[in-house]
Amino acid sequence: MAWHGMAWHHSRHCIRHRDVERWKSEMKREKMIWLLLLGLFLVCAGMSLVFSVYLCLLWLATIRNPPPSAPVTEAGAAKAGMRGISAVELEELAEAKDGGGLVGGSECAVCLEDIEAGQRARVLRSCRHSFHVGCADAWLLAHPHCPLCRTTLIPPPPPSS
Length: 161
What we know:
The chain has 161 residues and is mainly alpha-helical. Helices cover 53% and strands 7% of the residues. Residues 108-150 form the RING-type domain.
């Protein structure tokens, strides 16, 4: 009977040991599932954060540099605080027709279209870059430099003594 009792005790211990092992493996599996879910959540949260920062930067860039709604005029440029060249200085710039005097290719750097034969083009004296007259005039009324090489077209004002 003692032997039988020990065998019974041993088998009961084995059942408990198997239950504990099964419980441990279930806990490991459950822990891995939770870690996987946490990892997926963190990846999604990180991507959402990056996208939100991107949208904020895009919004700020739009506020600081609004897209032009109409062609720039001398009055509009002055009102917006942009200082380009005056209309008088603009008329003094050379104008070419039929591709005459064009240097550096026949593509307008403002609109990126070719300057076709018969179209009016403006050639800047300081750098010899050429543009469509309308493109150059809109740019130069707002900016005092070449849109391609940034050469200043207006000499700096003389120092006041």
